[in-house]
Amino acid sequence: MSTLHAGSSSPGTGIFVINRARILVVVSLILTWTIASLLPRYKQTVLDLGRERYNDAIEHLPAVKVDWHPKYDPKSQFNASKVALMIEPRPLPHLVPQILHMISVVPPDWRFMFIGSNKSVISVSRSFATQYQEANGKLDLVVLPKPWSIESKEGVYRLLTDLRFYDEFMPEAEWLLKFESDSIMCARSDDSLNDWLHYSWAGAPRSATDRFAGNGGLSLRRISAVRQILNFQARYNDTEPEDEWFGKRLTVLPGAKIANGQQEDHFSVESVWHEKPMGYHVRDGGENLADDVWKDPQRRKENFEYCPELSMIMPMKLERERCEGDNKQGEIVGERKGGGRE
Ligand SMILES: *[C@@H]1O[C@H](CO)[C@@H](O)[C@H](O)[C@H]1NC(C)=O
Ligand SMILES: *[C@@H]1O[C@H](CO)[C@@H](O)[C@H](O)[C@H]1NC(C)=O
Ligand SMILES: *[C@@H]1O[C@H](CO)[C@@H](O)[C@H](O)[C@H]1NC(C)=O
Fold first, then answer.
1. Tens-place pLDDT, residues 320-341
2. For atom 12 of ligand 1, which residue has the closest CA?
3. Which superfamily does 74-320 belong to?
4. Rounded to two decimals, what is the model's pTM?
5. 172 pLDDT tier (thresholds 50, 70, 90)
6. Which stretches are transmembrane (predicted)?
7. For residue 191, what are the contacts with CB-CB under 8 A and spacing of at least 6?
């Protein structure tokens, strides 16, 4: 009251202000009591509404269609000749964060294609973030029609060595980045994927002197070179993996430029360690780690410090969960030997 009074210029206005203030207090009290008495009922209605909407959302999520760009094709923002491809039939829990991370580290002009089973496509499309990327033209989620099959590795090899696949599903692509659920590109790398476009094929070398640094787990391929080979050669069913098959032919293809283990050893690290590679492929999701890259604890620590994203694609244990007597190189010292891998 005194503050109200102090502000007024004459006694008359002062009394008026006090009266108005009193009325306001009474009115606001009545309002508060009324609202308070209504509250439990109101709360219940909001909860019911929320539950209803939530149930609706769960049922409809995979079928959500967003049309935020009615006026132009959102895909035209990106370069149709650059496609990052992941093929994965299993609905693995880390697919969404992995795809989103790859979208953030691959140069922005690239488009992404996820080819999955019904199950894995539904699991990836449940996230709002992937729905956004899909609506924005950045990402396509694809279930291939029969007779294509990606359920086995052999099925994927057949797909990638079949000209019809490239014709039907990526007719405009010239550069293909193929990554798998156990490969990752590092945000801290100084390399850009676009620095490698002059190669016909680049990937991880299998040895330091490998003539063909081309492991397919994280690899860049030029579709024109792939087509050149597929135009006159066919892979026999149930033979070697597609990357090795292509490797043998690409290394003798006139004009093809192939990354080799001696010069280009840091596109992707898998069996041969290299400082600060652009990315890693951890064989079989970390179940079959290469000693040169992962056995030494200091080297392992440096890998994780340089590329913390690795922990997204590897099964991890905390330091404090180590087995007793673990020598940090995958062996238990003293007692019987065990496979206490990180
Ligand atoms: C797509 O990228 C390639 C390689 O960087 C470039 O030569 C080409 O002009 C780009 N296409 C478009 C439509 O921007
Ligand atoms: C995926 O689901 C569709 C429709 O539910 C079905 O027609 C198709 O055969 C399924 N594909 C596979 C590979 O299971
Ligand atoms: C290889 O398998 C495919 C089915 O995936 C079949 O259509 C094709 O005829 C087979 N090729 C040969 C040479 O047997």
1. 777 777 777 777 766 554 444 4
2. 79
3. Spore Coat Polysaccharide Biosynthesis Protein SpsA; Chain A (3.90.550.10)
4. 0.76
5. very high
6. 21-39
7. 266, 267, 278
